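Box 3.1 — From sequence to structure: RNA polymerase subunit sigma
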Amino acid sequence: MNDLAGEDPYHELSGLRRDMLRFAELQLRDVAAAEDAVQDAMVAAMARISTFEGRAQISTWLFAILKNKIIDILRARSRFVPLEIDVDDIPEDTFDGLFDDRGHWAKHERPAAWGDPVDALSRQQFWVVFQACLDRLPVNTARVFMMREFLGLGVDEVVAQLGISKTNCGVILHRARMTLRVCLQTRWFDTKEPTC
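Predicted structure (token representation):
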């Protein structure tokens, strides 16, 4: 067990509530369901706080609990209203110049070396910049990306939940990843001072 280095875990848990609620609302598209999911996650965390071993940040642990609550809600819904997803305003050929005919990075378009990714990802400021980049994605694009990459839902499950085609899902995921890559490159990896 970990005493959280003398910090008040209850204060830290309540401080994360706003971010948890925003994330849950993005995924569930229902304020009441999002509030329920966050409340359930907070209650579960409070009940298990004595078992928190400190192998991860408390925010990571709490978001893992919330993620499982959201997945349970998504899977429990018997009917899903098809969602009209506008792929967004980025033209399809926007990223074509970045690659050669074989689909490899063009010589002068390769991303700059990002250094040690584990070290970069561990820095708290990186996540602030990542969140700012994620917030710039169109809401529906961000939702598809987070369902696939954060919640870990398979493509079949994402398309079934949202009523979109696999092709549309693939296009949305590709554009989300490329947009996040460009945003992170310019706002984190190419700058000495992170910008949001």
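Summary of the box: Confidence is low (pLDDT under 50) at residues 1-6.
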